[in-house]
Prior knowledge:
This protein is α+β, with helices and mostly antiparallel strands and 378 residues long. It has 9 helices and 17 strands. The two termini are 37 Å apart. The mean pLDDT is 94.
Amino acid sequence: MGTSFLNTELLPVRATRTLPGRYFSSPAILAEEFDKIFTQRWLCVGRADRIANPGEYFLQPVGQESIIVVRDRAGEIHAHYNVCRHRGTHMIEAEHGRLGETIQCPYHAWTYALDGRLIGCPSADAIDGFRKSDYPLHGVATHVWEGFLFINLSRDPEPFGEAYAPMLGRFASFNLPNLKVAQQIDYEVKANWKLIVENYQECYHCAPIHPALAKLTPPTSGEIDLYEGPFIGGYMVLNEEHETMSMTGRACGVPVAEDLPAIEYPRIYYYSLFPNALLSLHHDYVMLHTLWPQAVDRTLIHCYWLFNEKSLNNSQFDPMDGIRFWDMTNKEDWHICEQSQLGVVSRVYQPGPYSKRENCSAAFDAEVLRALGHAPER
């Protein structure tokens, strides 16, 4: 990857203790997170080919907001608040589907082009000074990076290229834009979204929680190259007798790229993309989690497995071997996160000390506090 890696033991500890309990139990803090994080940062909403054809759309809930993400007849992707400019009615109810040429509000038939322009409104000529051009749908910024689709609800979003500067080109050798989703599994986890990211950031827990994973890759292996800010991650290394993370340990697909460098084969990369995406790269497939807080103690997670299309048409490989492995591992993680959630809301819970092997979890906490404008507590 052309980057410099460090052993986690050598990283500076960014914080010495876990977050106070209110960060996992307070509705007011969750509301602040939506206001200062989830409506201000770039959010991954999956793959751009979710809407591969003109007119295809899906609704993306973000807290109390509903966002229409749609591809127009020219192939351009647009995102709009699902809010009619007349009386504020939600215009679309189905979670996904295919539109014709327009989006029409069912209440009073105000009609919009797929790019958000108001093009029809009955009796509007009776409204003094009314101009259709003054009432487009409220737009949401979009961007496609490496085949992943992002939205940003901010009124003045940071340009994607600036926000994602540390990540641009980082995974160029992995052929990400051309990979295909082989499976999607959705999970509803009874835990705060931050507990899930904190868990992803460390393998201190891997030996007791993931015995199958620990057999494939030593929990203390690997190094980190991004360890502060909105992007955190690095790689772990497979044991020599195993080819990938799968139930059998055998590769479950052809390499994601024909010219993938040999150095990448034994490495598994894990990166968190603040605030809502977890990206895990193997030489034969890629896994993506997107996280969507539903309440202080509930998170909806969409997990996608991406393969080289040749893997899906090759009887020598079994993509489900890797999918089953991570579905099992995911459930182990979700269970322990739910147990953590039950504990951090206890009246006796106090922030505990982070170990050096949890440096990246501490760095994630620091980014949360920075985004909220909160000073760390000592």
